[in-house]
Structures are given as C-alpha cells and as structure tokens.
Design goal:
The chain is about 30% helix and about 20% strand. It is built from 8 helices and 9 strands.
Length: about 250
C-alpha cells in the first residue's frame, strides 16, 4: 500500500498541539458508550489504514487545517462548549482522539494537567496501541481505548502490533481493546495475535459497516460470537445514529 500520510509538523508557538476539531457529543464505542463527552481530535497518524474513516486528519490532500492550540487554549474551548449546555466539567468525559494522539505524547502530558485544572476529572485516550505512553500519561489518563489494527488494514504486522505497548496499557487495568469485525477470520486473528498479550475480558468486538443497516445485519452474529469466545460487545452508536456522516 502506498503511504499517503503527511508527516507531523508544528507551526506557530512552541508547545502547541495540531487540533483538527473540538466538539461535544457522546462517546460512541466501548465501555463508556453513551456517556457525554467533549472530543479533541488531533491531526496526523503513524499508520494510515486503508479503510480509515478519519483520513481528514492525516492523508495528503485531505487534511483539514484545524488550529495549532496551546493546552490552556484547548481547556478554555472545552469549558465554553459545556457552558452552552449548562453542564459541569465533572459530568463530562474528555476524549483525546485522532488520527493518532500518542504521536504528540510529550505535549499531551501538559494538556492533561490543564484539562484537569479546568475541572474535568475523566480523560480518555483513543490510540492504536503502537506508541509507548509516557509515565505521566500512564498515571493520569483515566481510561485507554486501544484499537489495535488487524491484517485487513494493509499495515505490516511489525508496525501495527507492538506487544510491549499493548502489555503496558493492559497492566494499567484501565484499558480496553476494541476491534471492528467483518467475518470469522477477524476473530481468529484476535485469538491468535492478541489474546496471548491482553486479557480476554477487556476485548470488545464491534460490527463493521458504514451504515445503520450494515451494523444491524452483523450485530446478531457478532453478539453470538462474543458469548462464544468470552469477548465483550460494543455498538458503534455514531454509525447507528448518523451513518457515515460526521457529527459535531
């Protein structure tokens, strides 16, 4: 597969983060599905899967400019978003996503300090599990939503599976591992490649599909497979609600 990723670059003031978008919605997947959340989406990715639904964060010719923002500027924006709904930061999760947010790990540590100082107590990171977190992040992130990539991503196995990172996240006991499933081969691959590394009870399977109908068609089959293998099931609420439309 041709690599069409843009390489990370920093413009403007030192210490800024390349923010693609910040919006208020609900968490759509995993353990915290349905919980109100502010999303901070960053540009750039270290993998670039062929089926990625956020190519607007990393692919040449598709990346949206966004803004270079300091951590305190991001925290102010988050507070402005929830003030529109008369909500307290304590009631809202902050989800750091991408792209691949861990590309910016060193600067994320300062962002976590700022966000917690603004009153937000629960911070999630959505990551592909290939970049080792700093000690600060391991200690201060409330939950890790890790989405390791399967062979259907067309990414070389040595790039998409980094066992030491997966183990380190698993050892926090504050991490889940989510996989989008289209067929039996995907489940067999999880059993072979990932169950030896991470605990079965923290593996979530989600139905593949860009439309509500696609999701519903696979849901019954996948629920049965979860009970058969001892995995957990997660819906993809954003697809059920809005299909492949971006919700902001």
């Amino acid at each position: 597969m041709t690599d069409t990723r843009l390489e990370p670059k920093q413009n403007g003031k030192a210490g800024t983060l390349p923010v693609n978008e910040i919006f208020y919605s609900v968490q759509g997947e995993g353990r915290w599905a349905g919980h109100p959340a502010c999303f901070v989406r960053f540009n750039y990715c270290n993998l670039g899967c062929k089926w990625c639904d956020t190519k607007f964060t990393w692919e040449a010719g598709k990346v949206e400019a966004g803004s270079e923002m300091l951590p305190d500027e991001i925290s102010v924006k988050l507070k402005e978003l929830i003030s529109e709904h008369d909500l307290s930061p304590r009631e809202i999760h902050v989800v750091l996503t991408g792209g691949e947010p861990m590309i910016h790990a060193e600067r994320l540590s300062q962002l976590v300090i700022s966000v917690r100082g603004a009153g937000f107590n629960f911070i999630e990171v959505e990551t592909n599990g290939t970049i080792m977190p700093t000690d600060d992040l391991l200690e201060n992130i409330s939950w890790w939503n890790c989405s390791p990539k399967l062979s259907n991503s067309d990414i070389a196995v040595t790039k998409r599976i980094v066992p030491d990172v997966l183990r380190k996240l698993s050892e926090t006991a504050r991490a889940d591992f989510k996989f989008v499933i289209s067929d039996h081969d995907d489940i067999n691959e999880i059993e072979k490649e990932f169950v030896p590394i991470i605990s079965r009870e923290h593996i979530f399977l989600m139905p593949e599909g860009e439309t509500r109908d696609d999701q519903l068609t696979r849901m019954g089959w996948l629920l049965s497979k979860c009970s058969e293998h001892g995995f957990r099931f997660s819906p993809r609420l954003q697809v059920l609600a809005w299909g492949n439309e971006r919700k902001k």
